[in-house]
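Hi V.,

You were right to ask for the full record rather than a summary. Here it is.
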Amino acid sequence: MSRVVSAQRIASLVGDFSRSPAYVGLADSLRVLIGDGRVGIDVRLPSERELTSALDVSRTTVTRAYEVLRESGYAEARRGSGTFTTVPGGQRRAHDRALMPGTGGRDVIDLNCAAHSAPPGLVEAYQRATEQLPAYLGGPGYFPLGVPELQARIAAAYDARGLPTAPEQVMVTAGALAAASVVAQAFTAPGERVVVESPTYPNATQAVRHAGARLVPAAVDPDGWDLDALAATLRQTSPRLAYLIPDFQNPTGHLMSEAQREALAAALARTRTTVVADEAHQALALRPGLAEAMPPPLAAYADDAITIGSASKSYWGGLRLGWVRAPMAAVERLVQARIGLDLGAPVLEQLVLADLMDHADEVLPVHRERLVAGRDALVAALREHLPSWRFRVPDGGLALWCELPEALGTATTVEAERRGVVVAPGPVFAVEGGLDRYVRIPWTAAPEDLTEAVRRLAAAWDHVSTDAARPAARAAGRVVVA
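Predicted structure:
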């Protein structure tokens, strides 16, 4: 059944739209709302009469605005049913076949990628950035360290979090994964050991492997880090680097406390191990008041630490921007490693991110509200339909790390895909195998889609947990990106 958006909701979202002329301003506002997801796809818009009353405009204004939407591909009329939202090229234009293979059907709910649609305000940020772009067109457009304006804003954000940073200590990259690749190339040699958490973000560990390093797993338990065990691993293996996710660890969602960060930094110093702290989820604190009370960066306790940041989770993955914050003495080494991969990130997107960071107090709270709504819907659905699955509700991040009663994670996800929902099984996040009692479920889809996804997961679990379905299924190969 298609969803419906009320005239009052549309009126509150479009706000004080441009009236020169009014139908163009209304159509432009509706295009932005549909494009950034505040009004979903395949949603029935209010009737012209209802919207005319709610906006206090003429019927002609709404009629012509709907015509513009249809002509531009953002709406379609269905005889006898009304006007429904769509997007140019259809709904599948939002997904890449290499990233999400086998999920082209319209009824598939794909939760393989823990990333949200663009937050409100992104279109306006692009518009303002485009106005700044001409000032850069007279140069070559290469910024191996990043556009200075963005470097300055990232450095200022670290300053505000208690980590004094000069803009020259920041390198902007084409995403956090590219940042991990640069760091691995710069600071590891073939055969050197790198400690990584398990479970952890698999694409980052793959980047370390590509540099020729040997991965040494350090377990992250359902209740958090065992720092004594981690310190023992550091002593026994003398690794070159330790790649860790202290802020809403992916996939467990754990947040490392200030005391833990201090103890970890001391253990790293004793073995002369450089820590690479992945902060891709740092801005996604969802518990009320936590965003203002987050622990300082791990680098505030470890002088030689290297920090990786990302715009993909806090703003939008389509920006494809991340960064490395490093001690000044390490910057030249990073630059030399980076120019063998690329010569810089796109200028326009860097200007967009700088603008978004200037408006973070407006953009991020709305983004977090959407995530909270998804998280709460997912938790409620799991407790209703899969009460035997155990999970801890994290204070931030993007996903639940669910423990199943039996080691049937892979079999469940394969059966779930047959039923039209895609999630990642635990072994994807394991460094050396195992973890088949776990499944990761992001809360980045719409609440109603998450509820339906859990219903399908419950049906899949009921099927594979019966004796007749015990033989293990082979998981379809796919890329996990978050």
